Amino acid sequence: MNLQVVIGSGPAGAATARLLAEQGHRVRVVTRSGRAPEPGIEHLALDAADPEALTEAVRGATAVYGCAAPPYHRWTTDWPPLAASLHAAAEATGAVLVMLGNLYGYGPVDGPLTEDLPLAATGPKGRARAAVWERTRELAGQGRIKAVEVRASDFFGPCVTDGGHLAARVMPRLLRGKPVSALGDPDAPHSWTYLPDVARTLVEVAGEERAWGRAWHVPTAPPASVRQMVDRLAAEAGTGPVAVRGLPPAVLGVASLFSPLLRELKEIRYQFDRPFTVDSSAYEAAFSVRATPVEEQVEATVDWWRARQGEEQ
Questions:
Q1: Within a 13 Å sphere around the CA of 235, how many CA atoms are in the beta-carbon half?
Q2: How far apart are the C-alpha atoms of 293 and 282, rounded to whole Å?
Q3: pLDDT in tens, 172-205
Q4: CA distance 6 to 31
């Protein structure tokens, strides 16, 4: 099968690499530190922001998946060189560039998010992420690269840990029947994108030339509030009901003095203070991936966290 190169080994990159290996592809994963080889997966240590090194790593591949992201507080400084390196590698090798994006670039929107909305974010992280796609689309329009972007809402599911709003800050407490805290309004409808569906979408668009040149939303289940999701997870775990407490702005302000992550999340607070929903109907009308049923998502997530907790004891 073809060589496929995955940049980054966070939850999405790792899930994409495993899926590609399961399909029989040769898979190369690029990270700064490298890792021990896995069955069907080669790990290579290099700085993906180095265009010459990355081009050599991608040479011979049919697709390169941009699943890496700089640390939250360094988006404005580190995204431009990383994106430029990905663009250079895609142009030099002819590999299709499959970018994993998010929804920050839209900024606050009234109503469901669709791919035809302008990228109107005014915050620094939203603008940085929008600029990556705007340059990618420009190069694709000039015929210099083949590229597509896949946008997901907040990740949910197995292997989602510190960066997930229904993960490390929720699941360990929920499994013990303890109250959990939520950023913003715990009753606001919110879209949660299941991690395995992210990987399946990335892999599908890589092989679909008609998908290239634009952005698509990952098929995502109907929105559910934090409270509703906690109720489902607790019911599956047999620890419910679990109390859900909203994190007031004043408390968030104090907590952000001690937590760099919470400090950076202030820019996207709007996503949790009001309905934040994704419309993935355009993708579903064109391609085959569908959102995994929520019941399966919840069962797999609880099982994974239980196994993880057991390993740590």
A1: 8
A2: 19
A3: 999 999 999 998 899 999 999 999 999 999 999 9
A4: 9
